[in-house]
Amino acid sequence: MTALLDVKNLQTHFFTRDGVAKAVDGVSFSLDRGQILGLVGESGSGKSVTGFSILGLIDPPGRVAGGQILFDGDDLLAGGEAIMRNLRGKRIAMIFQDPMMTLNPVLRVDTQMVETVRAHDNVSKAEALRRSREALVQVGISSPDERLQSYPHQFSGGMRQRVAIAIALLHKPDLIIADEPTTALDVTIQAQILSEVQNICAQSGTALIWITHDLAVVSGLADRLAVMYAGRIIEEGPTSDVISNPRHPYTRGLIDSVPQGKRHGAMLTQIKGMTPSLLKLPQGCKFAPRCPRADRVCEVEPTLDPAGPDRSVRCHHPHSEANGKATS
Description:
Largest sheet: 8 strands, mixed
Strand order of the largest sheet: 6-7-8-3-9-10-12-11
Distance between the termini: 38 Å
Oligomer: single chain
Number of helices: 11
Structural class: alpha/beta
Number of strands: 12
C-alpha cells in the first residue's frame, strides 16, 4: 500500500547575507492514511519549516533546495503553485499555533467558514452553512448556530482554536499539519482538543502531522515520533518505543526535562547549552557540543541507521535497547 505522504531527502534552505541556513537538511519520513506523526524538537530544529515546505509556504529568502514530497503518489515540488492552490485547504489543511493567523477579526465566523467551503466546492450558501455547523459540532462547540454569528474576539483562546480546527476539517482533508496549536492553551482545554483530534483521525482516516516541542503532548496522541535537531531527524519510531526506550541522547534529554514525577522543589533536568546557529553548525554530529557521550568519533557526521524493529537513530553512541547504556 502506497503511503499518503512520502517525504524524501527534503532540503529547505534560507539564503541570507550571512550565508545559507539549512533549516531542513535531508529530512525523510512517510505517513499512512489515519496515522498521526509527532514531529518533535526544540525551537529552531526545523519542524515548522518542514510543515510549511510540504504546503509550499516557504517565502524568500527561503526555498526548497532539493528532495521530493510525494502526496498520494504526486510530486508536489514538480507540480507548481497551481497544483498547490488546489490542494491547500481541501486535501491538505493546516492548523496554526495562533488561531488569529487563520481567523479574520473583522468577519463573522459564518462568513469565514462559508468562504472557505465555496473556495473549493461549488455549493450553495445554505449547504456551506450546513457543513460549517457540522464542523463546529465535530470539534465540540455547543450552540453552533449562535457561534457562527459571532466574531473571533467573542471567543476564548480555546474556542478560537476549535474554530480554526473546524475550518481545517471543512473539506474532510486527507492530511492535516498542526503547528503547535495547543501551546497557548491551558492543560484542560489542551487535553480536550487532543482527544477530539485523535477521534477525528480515527473516524475519518485523516492523517495528521502534529508539530510540537512538548513530548508530553504527543506521547498519548501520536502513533509515531520523529525527533528533529538542527534540521535533521535524529530518531524515529513508534511513540511508545521512543518514549519508553529513547536511543538518542538528545531524545533522552528531552524526556528527562519533563517535570512530571519530580519531587517538589527538586531542580529540573536540562540539556546543557543552546541549539546551534544554522549558519555556524559544528562539524560532525550537530548535537556533539551538548552531548555527554561525545568523543572524537563524533567529529564524523552520523547517518540515520536502523536501531531495532521499526526504529532508526542518528548517533555514534546510541543508548542500548536493554539497559539505556551506550553501546560499544
